[in-house]
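Troubleshooting log. The previous run stalled partway through. Resubmitting the same two chains, unchanged.
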Amino acid sequence: MSATAPVVRDESPVSESLRHVTVTSKKFPTVFTFMTVVLGLIMLLAPREGETKFRFAADTDFFAIPSVAVPAMPLAWVCLAILVVLTVLSWVLFLQERRTPWALGVLFGLAFLAGFLGWGGAGSVSDFPVVRLVSSSVLLAVPILFGALGGAIGERAGVINIAIEGQLLGSAFVAAVVGSITKNPWAGLLAALLAGALVALVLGIFTITYRVNQVIVGVVLNVLVLGLTTFLFTQVLVPNTSQLNQTVRFPAIRIPVLSEIPIIGPALFRQSIIVYLMYLAVPLVWFALYRTRWGLRLRAVGEHPLAADTVGIKVERVRYRAVLVAGAIVGFGGAYYTLVAVSQFNRNMTAGAGFIALAAVIFGKWDPVRAAMAALLFGFASALEGAMSVVGSPVPSQFMLMLPYVVTLFAVAGLVGRSRAPAASGVAYVKE
Amino acid sequence: MKTKMRLAAVGAAAVLTLAACATPPDENPPAADPTDSATETETSEPEAPAVEGFKPCIVSDAGGFDDKSFNQLSYEGLVKAANQLGVEWGEVQSNSETDFKNNLESLVATDCTLITSVGFALSAATVESALANPDLDYVLVDDAADNDFDGEKDAPNIKPLLYDTAQAAFLAGYLAAGYSETGKVGTFGGMPFPTVTIFMDGFKQGVEHFNEVKGAKVQVIGFEGGDQGSFTGGFEANQDARNVADGIIDQGVDVILPVGGPIYQSALDSITDSGRDVALIGVDADFFVTDPNTADFVLTSILKQMDVSVYDAVRGAAEGTFDPEAYIGTLENGGVGIAPLHNFEDKVDPELMAEVEQLKADIISGAVTVTSYLNQ
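Second attempt completed without errors. Output:
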């Protein structure tokens, strides 16, 4: 997929001037070409008639933007034309040995989306809910994003956290039980953080103190938590649903002013407290990792524990702290399931979100901000599936259900390029 | 040292995995589920004589016996029959696809004479087990046991229990269309499987029938026919299901039919959060009875009487008259139906209910035809 071509331009002896190396990648032009061809084929082979209605307003908007009906095929053709131009531009840049800027990629993505949506929603009686698409992208990403943040912290400290899924499921369970007993979502949230940290503690004890293979412990923890929560759900929660499995959920809070901004206001600023905490968590984790002494030590321990030890950093203690904090952060994601999304716990309700979070960590190159972006991308792909099916698009349901995973796969395999894990990630530190 | 640790970890992983996956069959478990109706019938009715050594057993799919849906209903039917017969029964729950074969084998090994497999997912494993044990009787809920699609079941000793729920969903669709004030009703499913889409399909046909009869224009959001529609991609009540339900309610529907295990819980929370008056239609069991939380929302439920048909099959086998002929539940034989309106009694026009009753009679007599994958 990625072809890098080192080009030696300067013929003069090495000793006199520095060798000039330009690295260009065919990645962008190739992907652009592929996607343009796909959209073109779809439009040629399955042309559609009618108009696509885009709805920009939420139900309760202060001043509502009217829905816009666009003739579907002309819109799609215009978008295709833009795609062709961008693709050509990208190839030209490649031939000139210049990089395709990210902005171009974003523009390409938006044009592709507009064309595809226009085509998909043609002639439908339902309108295409733009606000819903934005808000669902964020909401579907919440557990994945918290999971990815926790995963990134753990791996930065040198502990691979395969158990994100288990932490999510465990904290969702505990949040449901505590939230139901106390009828207080804050108590549920607190318990969820502790549950996430507890699973992390088990992970820590085995991997840091006893130096068992980190991947194996993680996998085992996932199976253990799934088995345990399913057992308790069946034996304890189901018979006592009203006392133990009926939470009071966090209400949606409107942020003044911000929530009145068209489109993004209702989508992003009329959410529950956990979503706002997520907005804060990303910059906070970034700051903690890159701008604090704690973060510096944590990264040192993940890259070169021996060096860190030599200068007096207690490797095991730093790792334990990192893993516990990471577990608690994942706990927010777990709490989201039973304190915001649904008011009941049910078996295996995380349905693999933790593994997607793991992919997001790698996709995001072990960086909290990029991992968050990766989680949002996955959320967006899932949201797109929901929105497309509501307008009755002709894309087979099975394909649309597959889409988020295809996107993740391509993103991890293709677009990320060379990503380097923290050097000591997955390696237990043995003090000599 | 390191290798030893690794070996220990592998060992631990294997043990845990096995422990989590293959639950050993319980020998005559104590009334496992307080919500089941089995216990109350324990002492009623005189004991019927069962064939010597008769032991009915049941294996669930990944939903488990507490799914408030087909596993639970089938389980209740079997337990009720076993209690009345005064015989022991065996049960085992599957947690994933990989369990099916092992679970069936373990039931065979514990001297079961009648094995009930719940769900089409178990079809292939059940056929395999049935062919290997021609002396045993098998009941397969929700599947025709025809994996080579030649129109014949693949093993002679399997009794498939099928339900033409499209007929009942048709009635629910008609009722929903008549009840709807916004002129929009919605549905979504877990996965595009035939046993799921049959509900959505019948529902849509019912709405279309209403439009035809009344000259109305009620729209169905979330199902296009075939297997095109809104699906959550799984049978878990989580944000994915919330998202789909939110999207459909967003379109202005005032009746919603979620098809697939617990995903209705997500729909319930969507309804609450939307702040609008949206009625819910249940599937499989009467939600009003099985889940009191739904009492204020549930318009009706599309019933699939698996407890009754499993019970009948078990009783038949116990008396030595196991009939491996496929059973198809219809409105006519009472295998499918719709639940009473309960709290919606005074919100629905009695005239509409009379029409629904008439429609039921018309479907039974064949005056109105409902198509589904079972009668094509």
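Takeaways: The first strand of chain A starts at residue 7 and ends at 8. The domain at 130-415 of chain A is CATH 1.10.3470 (ABC transporter involved in vitamin B12 uptake, BtuC).
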